[in-house]
Amino acid sequence: MGMMVNSNDSDDEVIGTINTTPLVDIMLVLLIIFLITVPVAIHTVPVDLPEERNVPYETKPENIQLAVNKTGDIFWNEIYIADKSVLLTRLQAEAQKRPQPEVHIRGDQITPYEAIDQVISTTQQAGIGKIAFVTTPPATP
What we know:
Helix content is 34%, strand content 16%. By secondary structure, the chain is an alpha/beta fold. The protein has a domain at 64-133: Nucleotidyltransferase, domain 5. Strand 3 (64-68) and strand 4 (74-76) form a beta hairpin. It is a single-pass type II membrane protein.
C-alpha cells in the first residue's frame, strides 16, 4: 500500500491497490528453481517394464466351475449340488490332485453374499488353494 506524498489536500488517502511486483519476482524465482530441478529428478534407473496383455478367459477342463444362482443353489459344472456336505467331499477329493485345480465361482448379481460366502468357506475348508471369480467383461462402446 502506498500514500500520496505532497498532496494539497489535508486528507491522507490510502491507495487500495496491491503492489504485485514482489509476487511476480517470487513466481519467477520458483519457475527458475523448478526448471533447474526437473531434469535432475527425471534421471532414473532404466528398467524394462512388462507390457500388459489381455488374454481372454479359457476354461480348462481341470478347472472346477461353481455357479450360485440368485436363490443360493449351487451348481458344479452345471450339475445341481443339493447339499453342502456333498460339495465339501467332492472338493476334498479334487484338492488331493496334483496340480491342484482352480475353483472358478460364478455368482448372479442379486445372489445374497451369504450364499457366495458359504461356497468360499467350503472351498477353503476342503483345502483348495486357488479361488477365482468369473465376471462378464464390460461392453465395448
